[in-house]
Amino acid sequence: MEKKILITGGTGFIGTILCRELVNKGYGLTVLSRQPADTVRALCGRVEATSDLKLLEGHQGYHAVINLAGEGIADKRWTASRKQALRDSRIGVTRTLADVCKSWQSPPEVLVSGSAVGYYGDQGDHLVTEDTHPHPEFTHELCRDWEQAALPLEELGTRVCLCRTGIVTDRGGGFLQRMILPFRLGLGGRLGNGQQYMPWVHRDDVVSGLIWMLENPHAKGAYNMVSPNPATNREFTKTLGKVVHRPTVFPAPAPVLKLVLGEMAGLLLTGQKAVPAKLQHEGFRFKYAELEPALADSVAG
């Protein structure tokens, strides 16, 4: 019998590739999206679309739920209203999702719910595993509350995995799309002093990791979805310049970034030396463990 999965955020940078992989594996998908159904299918493949989670109240249930909903954290300056929109698009949607799942005739066997390594806040050069104590700041509070909204499903017997994703690289979107033009023009450079860590990960590994959490019956709890080899911003900058064959001699000074971006500059000037300790311990294999091959693939074409 075809196993059915409900996905939020299925039309996003990670979700579109994930949906197509799951369809190819024989799963039946329902994608929550505000976009027209034809657009959803054009992006995600042979899927059903729904525009409102509450339309699924009282449903007989899905085998699994993958929750990737959330507005881009770096899309706009962090005003008070923007912070609230970020919370609503993550925490609000996840709470509604949990309530809808509780109304089903059968609860999902597994919920894989998005989060981010921003959970840990600024960690300097300390090695960050899933057991690291977080630094209190906006990104930690956002991710903490996001995760807490998913955990009540454990009371129904659902296996809950929390995917703390790093900075995702690949062509056609994500943060790299904003960086690549100045780098191709030879105008790229480090951010601030360049010593902050960038916990990067290739999109192919994120998709494989989400499917691994979905299908591995022993997977549970929080996972750092990052490469085994975190890089400093200086190292990342130098490697990106190398793969596009351009110099990287135009740094962006920290005071300028703070002036332009306000509090959001912290996303660029601080970071986490995060590693995927649990994923590696439990046997997950990365396709792109090294930065240079990941960036070369991400900027190809």
Automatic annotation (TrEMBL):
Which superkingdom is the protein from? Bacteria
Give all residue intervals belonging to the NAD-dependent epimerase/dehydratase domain: 5-224
> Pfam families, from UniProt?
DUF1731 (PF08338), Epimerase (PF01370)
Q: Which InterPro entries match?
A: DUF1731, Epimerase_deHydtase, NAD(P)-bd_dom_sf, SDR39U1
| Residue ranges of domain DUF1731 in the record | 252-297
Looking up PANTHER family in the UniProt record yields: EPIMERASE FAMILY PROTEIN SDR39U1, SUGAR NUCLEOTIDE EPIMERASE RELATED
Write out the similarity annotation. Belongs to the NAD(P)-dependent epimerase/dehydratase family. SDR39U1 subfamily.
Name of this protein: TIGR01777 family protein
